[in-house]
Amino acid sequence: MNDKTRQLIDADRKHLWHPFTQMAAWAAGDPLVIEAGEGFELIDTEGRRYIDGVSSLWCNVHGHRALAIDRAIREQLDRIAHSTLLGLGQTRSIELAERLVGIAPPGLTRVFYSDSGATAVEIAVKMAYQYWYNRGANRRTKFVALRDSYHGDTVGSVSIGGIELFHGIFHSLLFETFFIPCPHPYRFDGTAEQCLRHSVDALEKLLQNRGDGIAAVIVEPRVQGAAGMIVHPAGFLKAVRDLTKKYDTLLIVDEVATGFGRTGTMFACEHESVNPDLLCLAKGITGGYLPLAATLATEQIFEAFLGAVAECKTFYHGHTYTGNALACAAAIASLDLFEQNKLLASLPEKIGLIADTLRPLGQLEHIGDIRQCGMMVGIEIVRDKRTKESFPFDQTLGAKLCMAMRPKGAILRPLGDVIVLMPAPGMDRATLQRLLDIVVDTLRNDLPQMIREL
Ligand SMILES: *Cc1c(COP(=O)(O)O)cnc(C)c1O
Known about the structure:
By secondary structure, the chain is of the alpha/beta class. Helices cover about 40% and strands about 15% of the residues. A seven-stranded mixed sheet has the order 4-12-11-10-7-5-6, with helices on both faces. A four-stranded mixed sheet has the order 1-2-3-15.
């Protein structure tokens, strides 16, 4: 280890507090420090290269130092980095809004900017709540979400999130939300169709009993990422849309993870021709370059906020960096790259390569389930394939497997014992194959050894 790396690691241990990280374990570990990136690789302070196997936490799209995005940001710097959207317009944020409306599911015509997935969701929640209030239907104050769903870490987003581990401590801070079962075919005792019906019936029952109190239903479309890449049975999203229409409530779709090509289409909603009332975007929106998010709304929702100032229908919400010009410039350049590189058309081949390469792993003794939705993959490790029993979570088998991939040249981050693979949609075939080979080799050769040593 060179002196610079040692100094940086010392300073990191002394001053940083990493997200979702038990810092006691971090201090004892041997962290990598990333200094640069090139294409689909990250380069550490020792000059070692690693394939970025999870798109820098699900956000990178076209690779690192993508020339066109770099250039767009530099050109924007020569104009202005940031000016406020409170009472002023800004060229880039206007151009981007027009572009987003152009590619979003039909009916979404209004763009409200913020800076992270959590804020995009908070905004959707507050918009849905105030929408009913402004219309005088102020008994609609509750939200329905899926168990094990993840919508971000701010208090409002955690309230509609269904991951128990994050809920317990903060329980008294959170607002009450109704949860319905997550349609998880692998963990359901029955067919995929029965699994879908189980969740849909629960939703319908809830809407029948409490419908006039429900402001909106919120879902991650097609795949619940943070829950462990749970892929819903086909038709679930559409069924939820139909029920929200039938019972006259709003549908919020959180495409923070699934948006921008991740599932094989620009947005996951397209798989089931679903047009939500509110759509949350973040992560991949800037190609993974800068923090930016957008909440898209229908004209019907937007119009409910119009009126004289004294009517108090205004949406009193905003963030200082709302619509940041550098971030919007990056996002526009990213959308241009989608077109220039015909990125969406290139995805089916890569998605097929992933499926074909991983399929044989299903034969291995401890591989319980291989889930894939486009470029989003979860490989679940289990102790017993028949009972689907997991290993004790404090054995951190998923983390150990990902650590074993580092010397082979790949960086992955698991979700418990689910190995997550989320290559950037723009990743070239050769790099993708190398990444897949590392994953396959580790699961074939290192996993059995690790299990013997538990
Ligand atoms: C990551 C994620 C969020 C939160 O986004 P942040 O930018 O981390 O706040 C919200 N919803 C989903 C579905 C996500 O995957």
